[in-house]
Amino acid sequence: MNKIMGTVLAFTLTAALTACGTSGNNTNGANSATTNTTTNNAVAQETDKPAAKDLVISTWGFSEDFFKEAVYEPFEKEYNVKIVVEIGNNAERLNKIRQGSSDVDVIYLSDYYAQQAIDEDLFEKVDRANIPNIDSIYDLAKAPLGEDYGPAYTIGRLGIAYNPALVKGEVKSWKDLWTAFPKNLTLPAITATAGPMIVDAASVVSGSTEFNEDQAYAKLKELDSNVVKYYSQTSEYVNMFAQEEIAGGPIMEMYFKDLKAAIPAAVFVAPSEGAYAVMNTLNVVKGTDNKELAEAFINWQLSKEVQEKSAKGKIDSPVNTEVVLTEEEAQGVTYGADVIGKLRKLDMKFVNQNITEWTDRFNREIGG
Amino acid sequence: MNKRFLYLLLLPGILFLAAFMLIPIMLTIASTFVQDGQLTLEGYLHFFRDGYFNRILFTTLRVSVVTTLVCVVLGYPAAYYISRTSARKKSILLALAIFPLLTSPVVRSFSWMIILGKKGLLNTFLLSTGLIHDPLEIMYTPVAMMVGLVHLFLPLIIITLLGVMENLDYELVLAARSLGASSFTAFRKIIFPLTVPGLIIGSILVFVGSLTAYTTPALLGGKERVISTFLYQNAMTLNDWQAASVIAVIMIVITFVVVGLMNKWANRLNPKG
User: Fold this and answer.
1) pTM for the full predicted model
2) Cβ partners under 8 Å of residue A342, min gap 6
3) Whether B236 contacts A95, CB under 8 Å
4) Under DSSP, is residue A277 helix (H, G, I), strand (E, B) or coil?
5) Chain B neighbours among A 218-237 (CB < 8 Å)?
6) What residue segments make up the domains of chain B, in order of their start?
7) Does B122 touch chain A (CB under 8 A)?
8) Model ipTM value
9) Architecture of the domain defined by B49-269
10) Residue A25 is part of which domain span?
11) Predicted confidence (pLDDT) per residue in B57-87, tens digit
12) What is the distance between the alpha carbons of residues B210 and B254, in angstroms, rounded to a whole number?
């Protein structure tokens, strides 16, 4: 018996530890392969050119086929490089470069995580002369985290989506979250990219002209009994929406097409107080040997050609002002100077300074 | 062959375990006792003084204990039945029993949404029979978490019990019956004590699995937090590895305590086991 118990003890200990380490992957759709290699054989086989260098790009991994075909392959051909892709969510990939155990050259991160990396001195300062396409993007996207760091290559917006059959009355403003969703609302978890935006929206709804943390939390507490779940992944939102567990809640516009596919009557609104700008940035990781190549890649991602393709494919909203979309093409895409001009932008430095406390308060006072 | 040489064969495995498991665990444990270069228990005291953390711990333990009990109650008869059927039927039943282990936890959790949701199969059925008038709110509660975990871990307990039950000598039961014992007495005095080791191992696996499960509670659990999702929040989104390590060590200690207690209990039930 004791022998058996010893074996079990060893097994359970291993299980306990491995469970902590691996389980996170399962929820963000990157269960098995976290590293993925994209090679271009045509380039590799050309013998008259020197062997291709590797450029390591760290990204989320959504719409992989699109990026491979429209972004990576043309760049590989032009610069005779081999692009190697590392995949994971924001937090995982940021942790990887934090630990210094990765040789990533360019990293795609949301502005909120990119700010953390900047505060910890993990990025190279970019040379804007090597990224001339910055001149043709919206001002908001040029230097969201300061002149020294990379631009935003896409600006999306966080508004409210809802199922008209399940809400009470019309939804037009952030205020309506408090009145139109009887026990069928979802909100982003505080640690999700959109979490801090909801804290800000609650402060706005509370009537405060400047951000007021206490009032925001009091307001969020009022809302808690109507919240079914605080979502961490957009896939959770989409599933709850499709199953009519929820009538709706704040979501990024780019994901609205998934809601519409499930419930064709679904509506997306930019609240009257202003939708929130959600920016994804590109930055060069400190210690790279390929800084200029990395900057050339950023420049390529901002080019009209890539931006137009990714907007038309409804992959990412464009920031390049030269991109022209028809009304149909612009559906579900955050597009146009007037739309971008109305967005509210959070100060990511301020958010990062407060996020630990906000998370703690959210856990204790409101809900998971 | 030289006996010492045989020991050398163990070396690669031991080195591997030491380098990639024992040393990291030791470092993790050691790091929790040091703060700003000083030895301290502050990391732990901070947690145990905190009502919020105690609540999370309590929820986690409650969910794990209930999951384990339900798995035992459902798994024991199932394993007994499977162990007594013909070989062909046995392989089919066993394959069915372990099927949940072969699907991804994400898919499994989403399928529960279709069954337990407000418009799910269960509510639709109950509403149509008139047994209830408003849909039951099961999704995003600890109950949904337990249902998901039982689904996940029932195969484990069935497999471990089956291993023990298949090796039982049923002639002992026949002998007991021939000496006048009722079938219940034969079960109570012979089968149950002999299957206690399997029951204990299965229960430990289920308990520890439920204690550390992440995906199922994260997807089915709604607003109530469990310890593993709290650990994930600290490590991955707040980047507070010190707090995450403290939580990990608390989880390890709970595991050891539970295994120790169950061991004692098993010895009482089956001293010769």
Assistant:
1) 0.83
2) A270, A274, A275
3) yes
4) strand
5) 224, 227-230, 232, 236
6) 49-269
7) no
8) 0.82
9) Orthogonal Bundle (1.10)
10) 2-48
11) 999 999 999 999 999 999 999 999 999 999 9
12) 12
